[in-house]
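Slide 14.
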Amino acid sequence: MFFLKQALYVVGIPIGNIFDFSQRAIFILKNVDIIATEDSRKAGLLLKFLNIKSKLISLNSYNEISLSYFFINNIKNGSSIALISDSGTPLISDPGFFLVELFYKNNLRVIPIPGVSSFLTALSISAFNVDCFIFEGFLPKKDVYKKAYLYQFVSEKKVVIFFETSKRLLSTLLLMKSIYLFNRRVFIVKNLTRLYENILLFELGALDIFLKQNDFLFFDKGEFVLLLEGVDNDFSSFKNCYEFFIEYINKRNSFFYSMSKFSSISRNLFYMYIF
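Slide 15: predicted structure.
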């Protein structure tokens, strides 16, 4: 197989099933000098199983900048480096952007080694129209921000893809039910390609039934892929947008009333300087 020194290989790895590992990916990982990954412990088990002995270094959001310059120096001295994710394709809601950009800025080679992606795998079996879709990654952690974030998809016609943790999945589903029409469907997957994979499709109106039948999901650690179905040309989908707007206006007016009540500045001046 073709192998080039002084290059950064961005390598896709399996999302669960070890047999989804491509022969090219294994070949590259066995021949590079350094493998960078966010979770070196998890990657270490995988590499040990495949008898890969390349040096393993943990790259995360805290050390990415300093390590990127370290890797650049290694490359210039003749080394080769592979970047992998904990599972799936690197850089999707994972660190590595600064590293890849720095390689391009230094006119160094970046070589993709395609692999599996969890959200593309989920899309392929979702039963949704996936001609067009939007990938959003992880939602905000706090419900107040998450709610405002989710409102922008009330009338979205494309499938919207999120990542969510088991710890926050319940709050996210409850927010979706309070925001979207009850006949809007969601598709949830976890542990794809593994023995105990979870694949669930239901309407938000049936959320209570879903929770009773699948309460075990919220106690299991890990991440879910959550797909929100796009809406048809149904103007009733704007109902929740209207309700959210009224709620926002009422809260805003209450704020201005409270501020003007306890100060010498009129409510109109608050409007003038803030809006």
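Speaker note: The longest helix spans residues 239-261.
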